[in-house]
From TrEMBL:
GO MF term (any one): DNA binding
SUPFAM superfamilies: Winged helix' DNA-binding domain
CDD domains found in the cross-reference section: HTH_ARSR
Name of one Pfam family that matches: HTH_5
Listed PROSITE patterns: HTH_ARSR_2 (PS50987)
Protein name: Regulatory protein ArsR
Length: 109
């Protein structure tokens, strides 16, 4: 049974807000896209970005802390996967709306 929005507690609203903030960063959305279909090692994720490894590590830590991702340690390697399997569905259901020509233009600045 689907939860009605009116049934969501104030505490749940606070946590949801943090999760949405956690996926709102463009780099984090790109990480989710990379992990969408299959788990990846941290070095694989880092190699897909043109920035410092520490920057990607920070984003991974944020998403781990929020429970968005899982990590499995294998010796000195870390294998990341999407824990909140609903997030790709949430993002997927929004794509048709933002692709609609009538969708409001968003300031890109």
């Amino acid at each position: 049974m689907d939860l009605e929005l009116v049934d969501i507690s104030e505490e749940q609203i606070e946590v949801l807000s943090k999760v949405f903030k956690g996926i709102s960063d463009p780099t984090r959305l790109k990480i989710l896209k990379i992990l969408w279909d299959s788990p990846k090692y941290s070095y694989e994720i880092e190699s897909m970005f043109d920035c410092e490894r520490s920057n990607i590590s920070k984003h991974l830590r944020v998403m781990l802390k929020l429970g968005i991702l899982n990590v499995k340690r294998e010796g000195n390697k870390s294998l990341y996967s999407v824990r909140m399997s609903c997030i790709p569905r949430v993002i997927g259901c929004l794509i048709p709306y933002i692709n609609d020509p009538k969708y409001p233009e968003i300031d890109k600045n």
